[in-house]
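hey so u asked for the seq, here:
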Amino acid sequence: MEGVREALYPKYQLLPVVWRKVEDQEERLRRLTAEQQRILDILANQPKAAIRGVAGSGKTILALAKAQSLARAGMRTLLLCYNRPLKDWLQGAVPESFGEGLFIDTYHGLADDMCKAAGLRLQEMGNPKDQAFWTDTAPEALMQACERLSLEHKFDAVVVDEGQDFHDLW
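ran it, structure tokens below
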């Protein structure tokens, strides 16, 4: 009897549309909670700070909000992260009105760009596929590049997201 009922009355299940789920998650990411706003207010008077929290606690949103705040205040600001997908997401989340005041990059991209600007060929200093290249060679090359570059290439403020993934020399 149950088999006949299942055959005659198919089960329907309401599933949320995938694009709506993504839209809802992005909206939650953009909204600052009261706690996040309180932290931003505290950070307004702190030249250095380290924010720790579990995954999903809003650290990236805080970093983005702080970087935007610094750029709005007229500071040439770098928002540095570890991986390319996060960089792409952050760039998509920033209004074009920030223009040249807010730069978003990965550590690897920053090292490469700064070395190029200073006339150093980072790729010729070792094998980029070798982990030691990024942990030892690239940081040294970046320091050399920073010493060579003029103020127009430097930043007034640096905000780092995913700092736990960065090596000590970075």
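The domain at 2-165 is CATH 3.40.50 (Rossmann fold). The CA atoms of residues 26 and 115 lie 35 Å apart.
lmk if thats what u needed
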